[in-house]
């Protein structure tokens, strides 16, 4: 650094000098958050916790900071062992710090392997380079991580309804103090009233989800700035280590943070894709019932963090519409509590006609990010206890494709569609729907829940159908097991759309 910031403590000022590091360091860069200093030095990053005490964390003593450093190392090694290397003591004096020496440490730092900051997903997204495939990859990683993460004991406080509401209420108390702008109090009161009403409706479900093992030792801070693209794979880092109540949460709360951040980056299509990819892999569609509650909570967490940072720096960071970053998240929370009316869309057509491609596009075209998709190929496998890409070896009209399996699959799709619709999510059901009776059943469901109903029916020539099925079978990465023999049978048994359906 060419200059020293007089507002920095002596320790941090001294550690900006490259010669203090054991490795060949030419330059040291400093990144600050509201709770940490991160020193970027050569191939490594050294994270030092600020001696602060807030409502949700306590770094006020050296002993507390040491414990949190050790927790940060342990917890992040669950998914990034190659990035989180060690906890180092800093010795001597703040004016002349050393990375080793006699006497007790004066401070602690988490040593990390440095990565290209341009690969952070918030920056990838800002450049317009974030793709749906990146989020599909992350969905694979997150679902596997959640499945392996420690489960909250039923008798513990973690994930209980009262524990869920405590930080939500804290947000409102803190935001009322941090945001003195005119009119904000009334907006916060309206959001709090919505939150309290939702809590009354969802408390029993929250308790049931805990008993079902949905409360786990999660990441807890899964916004885009804590995700990084390395070698075209999305990696998680920097989970919550300082507050176990914010880490032992419903997996839906983890999912909601990324969803909210994608919306904050004006990417509703990717936000919709993200939630759909996670739920499709986990099968935890009950999460959709609580997801909007957690999304509003997460938006207000981000508002509070932005407000705290502004107060720390004594600067007002204005957004383009003239409001602060905190107020922008407040506006996002307000949009989330007022989702658009739901609709139900089913697909229709022979295997290979483009139903999944068309439903992909429809899913990502929802400007409100309030649509989810159900795929018969995935749910059929799930009912049989198989992974979506596993091969069942079923023959025509047998195994997964026997008449009773068909009825079970469409019955399951109808149950899930109703659950999602009544939870306030529009639904696309991606299935062949070759039989009119199946289409009639879903049309009746739409009528029962008061949702508009439509049919998405892509068209393709027989030659195109056969070529696509051959290509898909050769890749072997899709949930569909349709073969040319299946296609031939479908051509003989399809019940085309009637006039009232067209």
Short description:
The protein is α+β, with helices and mostly antiparallel strands and 502 residues long.
Write the layout of secondary structure elements.
Blueprint: H1 10-15, E1 28-32, E2 36-41, E3 44-49, E4 53-54, E5 57-58, H2 62-76, E6 84-92, E7 97-98, E8 107-113, H3 121-126, H4 132-148, H5 161-178, H6 184-211, E9 215-217, E10 227-230, E11 233-236, H7 244-247, E12 248-250, H8 251-264, H9 268-282, H10 287-313, H11 325-336, E13 344-347, H12 355-363, E14 371-375, H13 376-383, H14 403-422, E15 426-430, H15 436-449, E16 453-456, H16 462-475, H17 484-493
Parallel strand pairs: 13-15, 13-16, 14-15
Antiparallel strand pairs: 1-2, 2-3, 3-8, 4-5, 6-7, 6-8, 9-12, 10-11
Tell me what you see in this structure.
By secondary structure, the chain is of the alpha+beta class. The chain folds into 3 domains: 105 residues, Phosphorylase Kinase, domain 1, CATH 3.30.200; 216 residues, Aminoglycoside 3'-phosphotransferase, Chain: A, domain 2 (Alpha-Beta Complex); 150 residues, P-loop containing nucleotide triphosphate hydrolases (Rossmann fold, 3-Layer(aba) Sandwich), CATH 3.40.50.300. Helices cover 47% and strands 14% of the residues. It is built from 17 helices and 16 strands. The chain has a 6-stranded antiparallel sheet. Strand 4 and strand 5 form a beta hairpin. The longest helix has 28 residues. The radius of gyration is 26 Å and the shape is elongated. About 2% of the residues have low confidence.
């Amino acid at each position: 650094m060419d200059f020293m910031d007089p507002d920095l403590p002596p320790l941090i000022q001294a550690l900006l000098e490259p010669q203090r590091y054991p490795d060949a360091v030419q330059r040291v860069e400093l990144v600050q958050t509201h709770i940490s200093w991160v020193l970027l030095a050569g191939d490594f990053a050294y994270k030092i916790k600020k001696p602060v005490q807030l409502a949700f964390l306590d770094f006020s003593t050296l002993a507390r900071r040491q414990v949190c450093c050790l927790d940060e190392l342990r917890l992040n090694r669950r998914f990034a062992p190659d990035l989180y290397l060690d906890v180092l003591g800093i010795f001597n004096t703040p004016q002349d710090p050393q990375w080793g020496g006699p006497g007790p440490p004066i401070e602690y730092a988490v040593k990390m392997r440095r990565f290209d900051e341009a690969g952070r997903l918030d920056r990838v997204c800002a450049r317009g380079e974030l793709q749906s495939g990146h989020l599909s990859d992350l969905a694979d990683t997150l679902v596997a991580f959640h499945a392996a993460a420690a489960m909250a004991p039923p008798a513990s406080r973690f994930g209980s309804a009262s524990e869920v509401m405590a930080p939500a209420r804290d947000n409102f108390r803190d935001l009322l103090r941090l945001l003195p702008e005119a009119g904000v109090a009334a907006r916060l009161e309206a959001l709090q009233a919505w939150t309290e009403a939702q809590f009354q409706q969802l408390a029993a479900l929250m308790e049931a989800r805990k008993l079902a093992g949905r409360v786990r030792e999660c990441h807890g801070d899964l916004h885009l700035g804590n995700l990084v693209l390395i070698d075209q794979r999305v990696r998680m880092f920097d989970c919550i280590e300082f507050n176990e109540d914010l880490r032992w949460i419903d997996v839906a709360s983890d999912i909601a943070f990324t969803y909210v951040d994608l919306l904050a980056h004006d990417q509703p299509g990717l936000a919709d894709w993200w939630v759909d990819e996670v739920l499709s892999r986990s099968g935890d569609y009950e999460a959709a019932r609580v997801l909007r509650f957690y999304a509003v909570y997460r938006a207000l967490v981000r508002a509070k963090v932005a407000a705290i940072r502004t107060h720390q720096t004594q600067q007002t960071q204005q957004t383009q519409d003239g409001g602060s970053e905190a107020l922008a998240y407040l506006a996002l929370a307000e949009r989330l509590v007022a989702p658009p009316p739901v609709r139900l869309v089913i697909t229709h057509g022979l295997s290979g006609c483009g139903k999944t491609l068309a439903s992909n596009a429809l899913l990502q075209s929802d400007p409100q990010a309030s649509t989810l998709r159900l795929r018969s190929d995935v749910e059929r496998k799930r009912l049989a206890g198989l992974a979506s890409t596993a091969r069942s070896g079923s023959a025509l009209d047998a195994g997964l494709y026997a008449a009773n399996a068909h009825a079970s699959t469409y019955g399951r799709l109808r149950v899930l569609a109703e659950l999602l619709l009544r939870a306030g999510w529009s639904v696309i059901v991606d299935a062949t729907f070759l039989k009119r009776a199946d289409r009639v059943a879903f049309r009746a469901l739409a009528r029962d829940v008061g949702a508009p109903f439509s049919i998405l029916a892509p068209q393709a020539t027989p030659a195109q159908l056969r070529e696509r099925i051959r290509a898909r079978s050769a890749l072997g990465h899709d949930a569909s097991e349709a073969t040319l023999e299946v296609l031939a049978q479908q051509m003989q048994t399809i019940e085309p759309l009637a006039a009232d359906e067209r």
